[in-house]
Specification:
By secondary structure, the protein is of the alpha+beta class. It has eight helices and 24 strands. The strands form five sheets. Strands 1, 2, 3, 4, 5, 6, 7, 8, 11 and 12 form a ten-stranded mixed beta sheet that branches. A hairpin with a 4-residue loop joins strand 9 and strand 10. Helix 3 crosses helix 5. Bound molecules: zinc ion.
Length: about 450
């Protein structure tokens, strides 16, 4: 029988282990000679969901087994989750779904919705109707949404690969000993076939996380071959316990389908809006840049945060009238501002003229003069020279920014965000071939 196994984000704040559980199961299944019908999948869902409702990263394993092996496989999955996730931690509510045969249309629909929406767990349970499925929850049922969505998300359109290497238990929690220079070199040798290894603008290595989780590093790329090649180019000063190649929706913009354009604004959902800049952007404390967008008949607040780096400077260079398309997530950032589009991507379609109206300059010292009063002309505050005749000056400023597509600095990009280097390399379909070559550690 075909069997699809979905496991929701079993991570707690203290350390992730969802993909690690998948890696353990890959090894267990391989030793038993179980046939994989796909690489294990990492599925990212709506990234704007508040943490407490969970379910934004899940894994799926897809195998072909003898009917007689089902009991054993089920037991192995449950035991591996129970032994390896932090059931005792608050807000860890892992969920497992085993679906026999092919995922139904209901399951596929749910997984599409979970990319752009907030799906209640009851809907996930209902989606399993008419499936030969087993659902297991530890704690609340919140994890079911991710587990069912992972099963239903076949990654049949665009997709990428990620090789994830794991640390030995004794090293977890300690600094990761990944040689920086070798990462920079690997990035130079494998880009654009790999992506988001290194943020040269901020001189930051992006392949290694920082938490206490078992992940040592993850290399993202277009093919299984290139992520293995890139991995071998990295010098490590600590042993690798195991590694696995996942097929994922990382870097595909799966959460920003074109159909979302101008579909309205809802809290904690992604959004794509076209419109014109309404007011000159303002820089607020902390270096964040806000501006107001006129979309249809409403005014929408948009934000580019400090870590987005050069991106926020482009946003700061917008002026009223500029035609733009904004991509992002709608969040209630604080109590004073209305729901705001936190920008993930910006297309500047057309620049308008940047016109400034200034008081005339003093003919003696060159300083801008002050208005004396309505219709009474200007006076220089420095040399007291008056001038009743000169009109205000209209200045056309040179625009610094150019039309085009802009993304935040790499360090501030989301897992799902399609990096600039991937444009033009999108895949159209998955040929449904089982994994070949060496795709996990022996
Ligand atoms: Zn003067």
């Amino acid at each position: 029988m075909k069997l699809h196994i979905g496991i929701d984000d079993t991570d707690s704040i203290k350390g992730g282990c969802t993909t690690y559980i998948a890696a353990l199961l890959v090894d267990k299944f391989s030793q038993l000679g179980i046939e994989f019908t796909d690489y294990p999948n990492i599925i990212r869902l709506n990234p704007n969901i508040p943490f407490k409702t969970r379910g934004n990263a899940a894994v799926a394993l897809r195998v072909q087994i003898a009917d007689s092996a089902y009991e054993y496989v089920q037991e192995a999955v449950l035991r591996t989750v129970e032994d390896n996730c932090r059931l005792q931690d608050e807000r860890t509510d892992p969920a497992i779904v085993l679906v026999q045969g092919s995922p139904t249309g209901r399951i596929k629909r749910l997984s599409r919705e979970a990319l752009t929406d907030i799906v209640p767990p009851q809907r996930a349970i209902r989606a399993l109707k008419h499936s030969n499925a087993l659902a297991v929850c530890y704690g609340s049922a919140l994890g079911l949404v991710g587990a069912v969505s992972a099963v239903g998300q076949g990654l049949n359109g665009d997709y990428t690969f990620e090789l994830v290497a794991y640390r030995e238990p004794r090293n977890r929690g300690k600094p990761r000993l990944v040689d920086r220079a070798s990462v920079v070199r690997m990035d130079g040798m494998t880009t654009p076939e790999t992506f988001n290894n290194y943020d040269s603008d901020n001189r930051r290595v992006l392949i290694a996380p920082h938490g206490p989780d078992p992940v040592l590093l993850g290399v993202r790329g277009e093919t299984p071959d290139v992520v293995v090649r890139a991995f071998r180019l990295i010098r490590l000063r600590e042993p690798v316990e195991r590694w696995v190649i996942f097929r994922t929706n990382h870097g595909t913009d799966a959460h920003l389908p074109n159909t979302m354009l101008n579909q309205g604004i809802e809290l904690d959902r992604p959004v794509i809006l076209s419109g014109r800049v309404f007011e000159r952007p303002e820089r607020i404390a902390g270096g964040h840049v806000f501006f107001k967008l006129k979309h249809k008949n409403s005014i929408v607040q948009c934000a580019a945060f400090e870590p987005t780096g050069r991106f926020k400077e482009v946003v700061a260079g917008l002026v009223p009238g500029d035609e733009v398309m904004v991509f992002g997530g709608v969040k209630q950032n604080d109590r004073v501002h209305p729901p705001t589009v936190n920008l993930e991507k910006l297309i500047i379609r057309r620049l308008s003229d940047d016109i400034a109206i200034e008081n005339p300059k003093c003919s003696r010292c060159g300083k801008h003069m002050k208005s004396v009063g309505e219709g009474q002309g200007f006076r220089c505050v420095r040399c007291k020279l008056g001038n009743s005749y000169q009109p205000k000056q209209v200045l056309m400023k040179t625009r610094v920014i150019r039309p085009g597509l802009y993304l935040p600095d790499k360090r501030a990009q989301r897992h799902l965000t399609k990096p600039l280097s991937r444009y033009g390399f999108e895949k159209r379909r998955w040929s449904k071939e089982p994994p070949t070559g060496t795709w996990h550690s022996p």
